[in-house]
Amino acid sequence: GTDGQVQSSGIAEENSLTLTCTTGEKQIAAVVNASALSGVSTLEQLQAKMSDFGDNTLGSFVMSGLKPETLSASGSVTVPVSRLVSKVKLSTVTNSFRLSQHQAMEFELMSVFLTNAPQQTGYFIASQSSQLINDGATDIDDIIADSGDLLYDELGDVVVAVGETAEVNNFLYCYPNMNYVAGKPAYLVVQTRLGNGVYYYSVELPKMESNKCYNVSLTVTMPGSLTPDVPVEKEDAVFSVSVTDWAGNVNVDETI
């Protein structure tokens, strides 16, 4: 209501819910695919709630929405909701090694993952926790164990010949690193094999937003870093990051 107090709430298994409250100006909130919220009696308390990244799975992302509405009688209100996660797409990787000794080696794409991904983000306010997943991680086994299938994926040891571009089109998902906690942006990291050596190309992502898609294209010219926590140098690779809207938002109908 106008006093900021929660007048009615409920939980539904489907995308519709029937609630009872008084008429007048209201703020109608919806949270989807999330753990049950407790200890919420005011709008301020609701807006302070944080979502844990572990509540997300492929095909079932946490979503939220808030809609002002003036209620005069019984009726149906549709609340648009959007995903809290950001989507990161590795679009292409191009083999443009400059030196002949590197050109003579087989170049493979092994895996891709995200680092410095927030553990929590706000349902309704752009905020994030100080805890970051894969913060400063250097051991690939630890990264795999901590990432799950949203932050890490195998690339199938795709061989990219000199002068060729691999159409990867791989998608990963994380809560948006929007504040650069402790000066740490999020990175998309590509694990590769050049000859008998394993190298990493860590591409810095811009300040992120929920429900946006970040498209990364990578062109390698020199061997990358020996550990995933060292960012790509411009002498090693050229990369571009573009931002697009993530289509396919979902509506939630609330009958009040």
Mean residue pLDDT: 85
- Cα(first) to Cα(last) distance is 13 Å
Rg estimate, integer Å: 22 Å
Residue stretches low in confidence (pLDDT < 50, at least 5 long) are 248-256
Percent in strands: over 45%
Work out the helix count. 3
Class of secondary structure makeup: mainly beta
Overall number of strands: 17
Q: What about the largest sheet? A: 5 strands, mixed
- Percent helix among the residues? under 10%
The topology string of helices and strands comes to EEHEEEEHEEEEHEEEEEEE
Global geometry = elongated
What is the strand arrangement across the widest sheet?
A: 1-17-5-4-2
Task: Report on the architecture of this protein.
By secondary structure, the chain is mainly beta. It contains three helices and 17 strands. The chain has helices at residues 43-47, 100-103, 140-151, and strands at residues 16-18, 24-32, 50-52, 63-71, 76-83, 86-95, 107-115, 117-118, 120-122, 132-133, 152-159, 165-174, 187-194, 197-204, 212-220, 237-245, 250-255. The strands form five sheets. It has a five-stranded mixed beta sheet with strand order 1-17-5-4-2, with no helix packed on it. A four-stranded mixed beta sheet has the order 12-6-15-16. A hairpin with a 4-residue loop joins strand 4 (63-71) and strand 5. The longest helix has 12 residues, at 140-151.
